[in-house]
Amino acid sequence: MKRVLLVIGLVILMSPVADAQGLKFGVGAFAGGNIPLAQDDQKAGTAYGVLGRIRVFSFVVAEPNVVFGKWGKPDPIKGIDLGIDGSKINSYGVNALIGGVPGTTGFKPYGVLGAAMYSVKNDDTGYDESKLGYSVGLGMSFGVIPQLSVDLRGMGVIAPQEQGSKKAVLVTGGLTYYFTIGY
Amino acid sequence: MKSMLFKIGLPLPVLMIILVAGCIMSGTFVIVEKFTPTAESGFYYKGVDFTDNATWQEHGDQVDFIDAIGFELYTRSTATEDITFDIYVDNYSGPDASPDAVPGTATKVIEGVTVSPGTKTVTYAESLKLIKGLDRLKTLAKTGQMDLYGTSTGGVGSTFVIDSIKVVVTFSASE
User: Fold this and answer.
1) What kind and span of H or E run contains B88?
2) % of chain A surpassing 70 pLDDT
3) Which residue segment(s) compose the domain that B47 sits in?
């Protein structure tokens, strides 16, 4: 994971966008729903996080991010109230936004491909697994002013486990503020 | 630029479809099976077999791992003093087994639970905190079958009865 982040950092520093237009970057926060897929022992929960956003090439934006998620308490199963909380699913990683020019006004749709270290943990059952996973999704960014955008996004997440994987859909909304350094 | 975006953006919906399809092929399931152990002078036994469970029959041969296993236990004591009991698990001996002692190969999974006179329910959430020997328990659960033994001290015969035990197994499976 550290190597991936290092490579991304080098790409950003060497990118033509950084040379020609100064380094434009954003910081933001987001929150929304976290829907587990095909998991009888979890219900829909929440997710929130913070992100950075930096333009790497004219059509690719790198987005390092940290996400704190929690699924909901399961419903009773065959008359048994399991009485346990949903699992936490936290992650840190990098997304690549394809399209969606940051720091501009107007409506911009974009695609998202992401890689992150996912940790799935349940304090009640003792379940605890961390592995590199990935995500894919679509988003819409609306630049209110060049310095501020509102984002809505849907992401499918696959968090590999010991074998198999846990999957979820994140539907989030957030705000990102943009800065420009240099030139 | 637009052509480049199109080329890169086009595979995204395809990837999302693959993701959704993958979800249909795998998941996490919970099964609950109720058993009533036989009781004789402080010794309890039940061969637990949930391979007939509909969910297990559908996914049991593709189990990736056991996420969690616990019990819900209903006991009744007419003894005048507190009863203490332990639970052990071992390999399944078959439907006709009738053991009269805990074998040496069994693993203790619940130890020293104390029951006062009256009825008591050990909930699933409580059992998760009591369980030890989880590795063996999960290994056995992955087969869908296990022998369950109990021993009690302080009460014999009908003074302490395990009315029923519900085994709750959460497992992940993929095709």
Assistant:
1) strand B83-90
2) 86
3) 28-174
Q: Tell me whether residues B1 and A58 touch, CB distance under 8 A.
A: yes
To the nearest whole Å, the CA of A2 is away from the closest chain B CA by: 25
Task: Tell me the HSE value of A52 on the side-chain side, using a 13 A CA sphere.
Answer: 15
What local confidence, expressed as pLDDT, does residue A19 receive?
43
Give CA A126 to chain center in angstroms: 25
Model ipTM value = 0.79
Give B-chain residues touching A111 at CB under 8 angstroms. Answer: 8-9, 12
Question: Domains in chain A and their CATH numbers?
Answer: 2-181 (2.40.160.20)
Helix boundaries (H) for A76-171: none
Residue A18: predicted pLDDT: 45
Put simply, whether A164 touches B (Cβ < 8 Å) is: yes
> Which band of pLDDT confidence, cut at 50, 70 and 90, is reported for residue A20?
very low
Give the total number of structural domains in chain B: 1
Residues of chain A positioned with their CB less than 8 A from the CB of B130: none
Residues A32-64: tens digit of each pLDDT: 999 999 899 999 999 999 999 998 887 889 999
* Domain at B53, CATH number: 2.60.120
Q: Do A98 and B12 touch (CB under 8 A)?
A: yes
Which residues of chain A neighbour B168 with C-beta distances below 8 Å?
77, 80, 82
Q: Please answer whether residues A43 and A86 qualify as being in contact, where contact means their C-beta atoms are separated by less than 8 angstroms.
A: yes
